Amino acid sequence: MSDYKWCHGPSCHKSKTQDRIRGSKGSKVLRTRKVKQHQGYQLGTSFYNWFCSNGCYNDFANTHVERIVAIAPRHEPLETPIEDPVKTKHETSYGHTYYDVPIKEKGVDTAE
Ligand SMILES: [Zn+2]
Q1: Local structure of residue 82 (DSSP, 8 states)
Q2: How many angstroms is it from 31 CA to the middle of ligand 1?
Q3: CA–CA separation, 84 vs 36, rounded Å?
Q4: What is the 3-state secondary structure (H, E, C) of 11-57?
Q5: Against a cut of 0.90, is the pTM above it?
Q6: Residues 83-100: pLDDT tens digits?
Q7: Which partner from 6, 24, 76, 110 sits 20 to 30 angstroms from 93, CA to CA?
Q8: Measured between alpha carbons, how far is residue 9 from residues 39, 43, 79 in Å?
């Protein structure tokens, strides 16, 4: 099993960087980058195993977005039940006062 894949970015081979230059004199090319295969916790499923950069990942996602969302289409919104939000006043030790509205999920034990 090889320890790399070719970057799946559709335009990876169009980026003008020195590390992509391959070939012999007179027939040089810009080549798609190799992507090292990461192992271990979560890295095995990281997109960095298929793409050399966020840019290449975004190019791929933007090119194929219709097919990507078809994998898990969403026709209804998802909802997370929460407790009724309560505006809360805070005062710091140096006299600053601020407010926030903590959002707590229902059914999650927040006792310490
Ligand atoms: Zn790439």
Answers
A1: B
A2: 10
A3: 47
A4: CHHHCCCHHHEECCCCCCEECCCEEECCCCCCHHHCHHHCCCCHHHH
A5: no
A6: 999 999 999 999 999 999
A7: 110
A8: 21, 19, 33
